[in-house]
Amino acid sequence: GQMAAALSHEINQPLAAIETYAANTKRALALGRQEIAEGNLDRIAAMVARISELSGTLLSFSRKPATRLQPVAVQAALQEALILIRPKADRSGVAITVDPALDGVMVEAGRIRLSQVFVNLFGNAIDALEGRADGRVAVELKSAGERVCLHVRDNGPGIAPELAGEVFEPFFTTRDGQGSGLGLSIVYNIMQDFGGSVTLLPAEGGAVFELRLKAAQAE
Length: 219
Ligand code: ADP
What we know:
Distance between the termini: 39 Å
Number of strands: 7
Bound molecules: adenosine-5'-diphosphate
Strand content: 15-25%
């Protein structure tokens, strides 16, 4: 049951993005904007490839293989996550900014899985910022050495300290009827697979998630 729920949770974001880009392509074609339509079709194709890779990744959990890690540019994973989440962020008027200091930073990870981490954290922040005109999410590089430390911060309502121990549990949600409660547990498991970690930091005025990853050398 958990596997089925996780699969549908992870596939929902790319499906929603495909729907948006498809509608946008129709408008672009009606206006004769061929180049916009072509760009959108490329994105749709990339998201379909992502869905098949996601389902492959999730199926492979049932076989528990040693997870393969490789050097991944944090920016590449972030850009991929942004393509997916931007339609949702734009609909909600939330601005997402990425620290330019992240350029060139490489970590031990899997590119799709690292982008899943960002998609889930961004998606949660956007949900928490619902109805706010000044919603912001920022990705910041805190330190880089043997370990790379990143913060994903938003200016939403934050998370009560007494819930800090529970938010990473599967099926824990405060969004009755809307949340699956799987996003943060998926983030937690992926970060474990990378030999890294995710923690919720005590913060005022919003939620701050700290990601720690092993640094990798560019090949
Ligand atoms: P879901 O989003 O489906 O509820 P998650 O596992 O992604 O499941 O998140 C669990 C809970 O953690 C959410 O229901 C919400 O209460 C809280 N949460 C997660 N991220 C944030 C955030 N950025 N701001 C406020 N609350 C958050």
